[in-house]
Protein: Heavy metal transport/detoxification protein
Amino acid sequence: MITQSYQVKGMTCGHCVNAVSTEVGALPGVTEVTVDLASGAVTVTSNDPVDPEQLRAAVDEAGYELVAS
Amino acid sequence: MITQSYQVKGMTCGHCVNAVSTEVGALPGVTEVTVDLASGAVTVTSNDPVDPEQLRAAVDEAGYELVAS
Structure:
């Protein structure tokens, strides 16, 4: 299991949290996504390392922005 | 056609707008709902007067608060 945290910009409510969780949770190998709305922290648990470009695309698809780390 | 405006508290993003529009739009006789996110103004067009209690319940169901007018 790999757990990694990312920063996502633009989430303002529970619907935003759901949108990001759904898109990121659909990535290959991802087993859990938790989002802290107040800080914008998105914590992703996966079996294998997540492709950063796929992650960025998933966050973008949900309508938000992955902050460059 | 009757058009009336209401004030709704707590909407923060487009998802919130959709949630309110969907719930209020499902009320009997309602033909159109427009929401101004910045001001919280919800404008409802209907064939017949909308029951204030049904409106309040719909906004509540969406997860927001109708400001007492």
Chain A has a mean pLDDT of 95. The longest helix of chain A spans residues 14-25. Strands of chain A lie at 2-9, 30-36, 41-46, 65-66.
